[in-house]
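Record pair follows.
FIRST:
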Amino acid sequence: MQPLAVDIDGTLTDDDRALDPRVVEPLREWPAPVVVATGKALPYPVGLCEFLGIPIRVIAENGGAVYLADDDELEFHGDREAAQAVVERYEAAGHELGWGGVDFVNRWRETEVAVNVDQPLQPLRDIATSEGMHVFDTGYAYHVTAPDVDKSRGLRSVARRLGYDPADFAAVGDSENDAGMFELAGTSYAVANADEAARAAADGVTDGAFADGFLEAIDRIRGEW
């Protein structure tokens, strides 16, 4: 069976971002390594792996942070200071990050900064471009990150450290931040709620949305193996 790289929000969740309990057993029983690949800060996928009862193998912050329990090494890519400079200019222009007084979204981020999607995107993109940075719109947040960092970079690292080729992996996700990973993986599925960038990069699009789509995708992956 192929090792699996899977997104969280919009892929393992319902449309309210609650984890769908039906994904727990398939992830626990997957007979090859499972890697949780997300735009969230590192503690979130680590916690998810612990609660699922699977080995901690994570790509966090859109490829900016990679941890594998297999070798107990934590790897960082990106430029947190440059991302902070972008959002400081954004705030100076009269905008906000949009997370309230206690910002748990960014509190533990080490390689990027995330802005709430209820804030204006174009000024953020303009500032990021002028600073040589990139913005991912995941549908859940705008992520200001280094242009050479995405989930494909994380997948390359994970594959090398686990002794696989990236093309050995199957990947499931829903957003433009999954597109690079989709292009690198040997098999990729976008769930039905995915954005256009993810759909275009994926090998297939499921009929089901959110966790329904994930469950459909892994059934297809099993059938292809």
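SECOND:
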Amino acid sequence: MKKLKISALLAVLAFSTFYAEVLPVANNAIVNVIADAIKWKAETIDVGNIPQGTPKLIRFEFKNTSKAPVIIENVAPSCGCTTADYTKTPIAPGKTGFVAANYNAASPGAFIKTVNVTTSDSKTPKTLSFKGTVVAK
């Protein structure tokens, strides 16, 4: 029985190196091109303390580092306490755009909010976040 276990283990090890060279591997160059199409100045912003009842505007800026125009297709805040605005026109290569979140600081206490951004270069949304503390007046 012990010889059978050792033989099975050796067979697995022998074939694992064979399949490691035969099976296709994701093309990292393509993944890097998509990931680099938009370069965000910051993906998380700490707004610090903000007074209760005073809306806070948070602006996320980015640069189009690809060779084609990029269009922001959808911007979805995580809750009803946040509204969003964004660059509505195509962003040419080398140019900058923005996504802005306007947070309604109605309730005191710490918060973390997100905004999901979908662009023409990737259908997977990019999650931007901001955090801070609403201080009671």
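COMMENT: The longest strand covers residues 122-135.
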